[in-house]
Amino acid sequence: MRRSIGGSIRRSKTVALLVVATIAGASCIAGSAAAAPVGSAVTKQVTATRSNQLSPNGPVVTVDTRTVTLNVSATTNLRNQQRITVSWSGAHPTGSIQSNFNSVEAIDDEYPMVILQCRGLNPDPTTCWSPYTGSRSQLSPGRSIVYPPWRLDRYATLADRAQYANEPTPSSAHCPDIIDYGAETRLPFKAVDGTVYYGSGGADTGCGIKPPESNNSYAASAPSLVPDNATYAPTALDGTGSVLFSLTDETANASLGCSAKVQCSLVAIPIMGISCDDGYPLTTPAATPTPTPTPTPSADPTSSATPPAASPSPTATPSPTPAADPVEPVPADDEANCEASGAMPPGSFSQPSFSKYTVTGRLWSSASNWRNRMVVPLSFSPTSGSCATSQKEAVDVYGSELLIQATGQWIPKICENTNEAPFKHIQTGEPLARSQLDSGSVEAAFVSDPPDGGFSEPVVQAPVAVTGFAISYTIDNAKHQPYHSLRLTPRLLAKLMTESYLDSDHYRQTYTYHIPGSTDPPQYYKPFDSHQPLNITVDPEFIALNPGVGSSVDLDGGPQALLSLASNSDVISALTSYINADPEARSWLDGTPDPWGMRVNPNYQGISLPTNSWPLLDTWNGPPDSTDPCINPTLQNTPLTLLASPLQRLVAIEQSVRVAQGGGQTACSEIQKEDGSLYTQPARSGPQVVGRRFVIGLTSLADARRYDDDVASLQTQLDAKALAKKFPEATTYPDEGPLFTDDTARTFVQPTTASLKAAAAMLVHDDSTMTWPIPYSAMESTAKGLHAYPGTMVVYADIPTSGLPHADAVAYSQMLNFIINNGETPGTAAGQLPDGYLPITSANGLGALASYTLTAAAAVASQGATVPDSTTSNGTPVTQQIADQSEQTAVQQSSPQSAAPVTGSTPAAATPTIKDVTTVQAVGKTSSISTEFGVAALVVLLCLLLVGPIAVPLLVLSGRRGGK
Fold first, then answer.
1. Phi and psi (nearest 5°) for 580?
2. 228 to 80, 214, 470: CA distances (angstroms)
3. Are 69 and 81 in contact (CB under 8 A)?
4. HSE-up of 880 (CA within 13 Å, CB side)?
5. Pairing of strands 113-119, 264-270
6. Do the beta carbons of residue 453 and residue 680 sit within 8 Å?
7. Domain coordinates of the chain in residue numbers?
8. What would the pLDDT profile of 473-532 be if each residue is shown by its tens digit?
9. What is the Cα 424 distance to its own chain's centre?
């Protein structure tokens, strides 16, 4: 058989927004309430109350009551790390707001909306994921306080009001000595396998081991890569709020265990504060009210009408009984602390030391708050792990990350048919996959570009997807709110990619320096131009097109460079083709300054484009008077290149954009050697501070849609005459046009179904390459291209038509037939096509592509060494002339790369009114998951994010051998 397959360096610091501000509307600063993902939207409503009863037979005094309405954008066909929009109205405005809603500091917000993912349709707090110590272990705010607010909770069971409640039995050595605190209570977490974890967070107050996934929980100042999804979100002054909530399935959180078989729920708890009784059931047990009968839950599994249960005391670890507690009057100060309202004004920011404990998010699991919860059932899609039941071995397809979301939905459906062989999508850079295919190392590849000079043996290039790249971003504007209307020109992208923003005035100086100990003469450095903006936010071109962004953003590797790929990729080829086709960008790259005088970094001047591998060319070393230990020892670090540090995979870039972690290695990391000595090296900083975020990155369009990222509108065309007419004033640099102050004469396009369809209408088959190339020049200059998305890309399945084992050939043929015949229906269910792709159908003008792929499928199955011609209409393969091996241009070799319930006494009280208001089918964004490698791929991704370009792993998964 033929095939034998087998910036200036900055130390990371916490920036506190010690500013009192007002949140004026429903758009909270943590994220965008963007278009809802595909799935069923659900609305819930609760009448939330806080009421006190200060004596056994005294009146119940209502302190506050609010009708809170919750909207969840998607609840079915959910996938790991999918972000859904959760919005609400009618809630208590929040004070002392922490800018990072997923941080441990956010639990001290006053009156937040707490949003959690919990296991079960009628969950209790022990099955909710909130791993921070402060939300699961409550210690008296003052060590000597015997009656903290949770002991005065009139809705709590007596067991939960014990002085030392829910302690593990036997008590863990990690638990604080009870003599150190006047009262303590624990909320263990019950894992899906039955394990009870008393540990939480990073401190010892957790009383034992903690779930392994809680290691992903960090403080706001820590370099978290994947923030925990426990959310403590602020409510605006008008009672509204909105956040993007990130869901996890069993592949990312096995302890919680949500999956297609294990049902989970989203639980939203509007914090109202503790309803107090001043402790009379504890100090005068005889006066304890008669227990309230427990209501029967609704038979409707989607109903959130659940019993007004208190936080459950795990039956396996009973708490001490109240009889063992000291019976003494409740001090007046403790009563006041329980009954307190918020100390900080609604809308104020980040003053946790002044927050009133009784109204903070720490007490979300208290009976008073839990009774006001709204429960929304969630349904997860199956993953590719379902292929374990397949009766046939999977075949491998290497290549394009652009297909991750599509193959993540296709594969589970294919696996349902035990008579068909599934396939595995092994993600690598397209140039590497293409090269391995031509050399016989792999059997099939997903790519976008044809090989230089063609293949050495007959290979079909069958279209399987029309999708594209996106420029995704997380940016906060001058008012510290999310910015949602970014517009970029090819020239701005070129500026970001060529290390042309200086980052610091430090680099505008002229230096003469001598490396200590060197015999070389002193080196002279002169900055390449004094007109260079320090970063894109102060570039007049960017300001003209993006008013309101402002320049008070985090400078740690964000606004100076595009977060891009270190590995060879057809996506880089597409991006640089787009830039190269634009006259403004090409002229600037060739040395002509922009209208304001900014020039290209001379190391990039005249660079030849397109290219599938972007080089880092700036070689300037840091100045000799730098005191930074990451620079000073050797002067061998290049600050601008460190700012531009790329990552190995598109999915890693998307995650960095999502959590607002710049790619630049702007922090200085201290590393300990084996001998105990220390050395320093540049490292990535942690996520940027909410309100000051600015990260732009190159991602796949499908990834951006799955995770609900903001994506930039890209310029398609410029009307030079209209521009000159609007801005006739002279400029010092007339070759690059007039000084402009807005987007006049420029057309910008978002990646939408319409703009992808417009691009698809321009595709013409190239008989020389047997592909449908993207016509970048025509997009830039013709009427048809005006509204066509310039980031559009076609993905092909390249498969040999000779030399494959029969079973493999049949499997690949079945894959192609499934994709075209069954995989082009938009939707979120298994087998459907997620958002971010244009269905390859006649209705979208892609009938010729669909027909060719079906014809190619037949050629693959027959293994007759023929390649169908595009003019074939009856499905009969037509032989394509295969060039002689000696006349072929060698396929460029690419470097290795990735791929990269509750018992006890409760008082008589009204149960909160909780009801379903609507259940609506929404159409919008969708999600998917990467295929086959599951948790292992997540681990690789996290490692890549941590080390950036320092590590260049090649993901090598199971290979196929010929002869099967």
1. -65, -30
2. 13, 8, 26
3. no
4. 24
5. antiparallel
6. no
7. 39-380+904-927
8. 999 998 888 999 999 999 999 999 998 887 655 554 444 444 455 566 554 444 555 668
9. 24
